[in-house]
Write a structure and sequence with these properties.
Length: 447
């Protein structure tokens, strides 16, 4: 008992089950997810108040990136334990980190089985969070079935008070398409019901590629709640930006919120109803740079890592009609005490702003879109001989090619990303042989 006064133990002093805190946080901090707010708090409250629940609470969060799945899981975790997210009774597995190779399925099954049993034995009120379930090797989730089922105890361990949360992009496209069709009929998002989404998600999880495909825990109904995270609208992006700025003690104004919302990408292409990345990149958009024409000033907004607060730095710029933007940026980086702040932003981003200032000094004004347009070169990459371009034009073309590459690059987390791609090189009958493949007696033996 003395030990547990200072060190976290699996008892009521350390496991507080602050259900009202969960609900309040969802109401105040989660935007655009009326179904989540309605379902999650009540589910946790019902489970934790039951002295002898019939089974563990199992919730599966579904939705596209940036819709709030991890955010909600963290809210639940934070309010269940006195130590919050630092509690040793919170256990998180990330599919692409912990289970990256489909060929190691049997090894992963053994590891996962031991992991659940060991931690549940240490505390019967543990929280298990599985992220990127859509990237789990197919069949791995079946190991979990005994621990999620209606068993009083397994080999002396009671699993019924545990909570399992699965986070997945599975059926994210189905949710998005449902929302698009719903909006096309002139209906509000608040009219979408949990009953409409439940069958959509359960069938999607079972039939679509990923960790739940043909899974026993889905087939036997062991997932208690399929929680849909709807795509976020522009107004929700602005709410996320406002919350982020308030967290960093930054003065709010509608102009900044509008500007951040303008930088996000939206879909469908014509209607632009929903943010393509939800609120995921909003915190990055808060770090911005801009210019003030009189006097010529570069303005940077940046975050201090130690405090998380947003700071503003104004850098006076000395200009004349012959100022070269690239040389100006280089000299500031080398000679100025502002250099460490300038390095937080892209080189071309700062140069474009300098170009706006220089143009203004010369008696004209140009906006950022016009600057970018002037940098663009109309080149047919398939037919144009790039060797004949002058250096300035070639650099512009390279910049365009880099932008196209970044835009089309498929990264982990994207729907088209494929993990653990295996290529069979054993059958090389059709491969063209090269000189180096041949046993040539005429070759110099030194090579």
């Amino acid at each position: 008992k003395i030990y547990c006064q200072f060190k976290e133990c699996c008892d009521d002093n350390w496991i507080n089950h602050d259900v009202s805190g969960i609900q309040n946080s969802l109401n105040e901090k989660l935007f655009g997810q009326h179904l989540v707010i309605k379902m999650v708090g009540k589910a946790v409250e019902s489970h934790t108040k039951e002295k002898s629940p019939k089974k563990p609470l199992v919730m599966s969060f579904h939705g596209w990136t940036g819709s709030g799945k991890s955010f909600v899981a963290d809210i639940v975790a934070k309010h269940l334990y006195k130590n919050g997210l630092k509690s040793k009774f919170i256990h998180k597995k990330i599919a692409t980190f912990h289970y990256p190779h489909g060929g190691d399925l049997q090894k992963y099954k053994t590891e996962l089985k031991n992991f659940i049993e060991y931690n549940a034995k240490k505390c019967e009120r543990s929280l298990f969070i599985f992220d990127e379930v859509d990237k789990l090797p197919e069949g791995l989730a079946d190991v979990l079935k005994p621990y999620l089922d209606y068993h009083h105890a397994l080999e002396g361990t009671d699993y019924r008070k545990n909570i399992f949360i699965f986070l997945s992009n599975t059926a994210g496209n189905k949710i998005n398409n449902f929302a698009i069709n719903h909006f096309a009929k002139g209906k509000s998002r608040e009219m979408i019901t949990s009953a409409e989404m439940d069958r959509l998600l359960s069938l999607g999880a079972f039939n679509m590629p990923g960790g739940f495909k043909n899974a026993d825990i889905v087939l036997t109904g062991l997932i208690d709640f399929y929680v849909p995270f709807l795509p976020l609208e522009r107004k929700h992006v602005k709410q996320c930006a406002e919350a982020e700025l308030q967290k960093r003690n930054h003065k709010l104004n509608d102009g900044i919120l509008e500007e951040i919302a303008n930088e996000m990408h939206y879909f469908p292409e014509e209607e632009k109803w929903f943010s393509a990345t939800g609120c995921k990149t909003v915190s990055k958009k808060v770090e911005k740079c801009g210019v003030k024409y009189s006097p010529p000033t570069l303005v940077l907004f940046y975050t201090v890592k130690s405090s998380g607060k947003l700071h503003r730095r104004s850098i006076p710029i000395r200009l004349n009609e012959n100022t070269n933007e690239e040389k100006l940026f280089t000299s500031l980086l080398k000679e100025s005490h502002h250099s460490k702040y300038l390095k937080k932003f892209k080189h071309e981003q700062i140069e474009r702003l300098f170009k706006m200032l220089v143009t203004n000094v010369n008696g004209n004004q140009i906006n950022l879109n016009e600057v970018i347009q002037k940098e663009t070169v109309d080149v047919d990459f398939e037919t144009e001989n790039l060797n004949k371009l002058d250096d300035e034009t070639l650099n512009k073309v390279k910049g365009q090619m880099n932008e196209v590459f970044k835009k089309n690059q498929i990264k982990p987390g994207d729907s088209a990303w494929k993990y653990d791609v295996e290529v069979d090189f054993s059958n090389n009958d059709g491969a063209a042989k090269s000189f180096w493949d041949e046993d040539d007696s005429e070759s110099d033996m030194e090579f």
